[in-house]
């Protein structure tokens, strides 16, 4: 991403260096044009680098997103949905769910919601754990009853605590409870 930004003469306007002992991943923001920014970070749960675009103009964000996807040879969201759906191994499903949730479009997204919701009710604890975390990438009030059920009734104590933590994060973020 650094090389792509340099070759396009983007101005780096912010950077947080990686600090493994503190658990801080590297994060960089470039100004692409006035009101349009490219953001690079590494997800702390998966260790996967990702890029997203913010812009005052939706068309600029869409165009830059498409250019970055091609230039960086990034997987498209639809491919990640298919990859999750094809995965059979429990650990693979959990990892693919996190990646899918990380890549989901901002706002409510039915395909990711369907998969995360189903995983929140899965018999496998590792998949429920991944789903709890995945629900935090794009918080929605639609997850609240599912997270509440886990917080109150899950047979795994650690998952009850994780769900309680996620519910607290939802409260802190001001997720609408209606």
Structural features, described:
The protein is of the alpha+beta class and 178 residues long. It folds into 2 domains: 2-71, no CATH class; 77-173, Leucine-rich Repeat Variant (Alpha Horseshoe), CATH 1.25.10. The protein is 52% helix and 15% strand. Strands 1-2-3-4 form a 4-stranded antiparallel beta sheet. Strand 3 and strand 4 (49-55) form a beta hairpin. Helix 6 (125-134) packs parallel to helix 8 (157-173).
Topology:
Blueprint: H1 2-7, E1 11-16, E2 27-33, E3 36-42, E4 49-55, H2 58-71, H3 77-86, H4 90-103, H5 110-120, H6 125-134, H7 144-153, H8 157-173
Helix pairs in contact: 3-4, 4-6, 5-6, 6-8, 7-8
Q: Features of this protein?
A:
2 domains; 8 helices; 178 residues; Leucine-rich Repeat Variant; four-stranded antiparallel sheet; alpha+beta
Summarize this entry quickly.
By secondary structure, the protein is of the alpha+beta class. It contains eight helices and four strands.
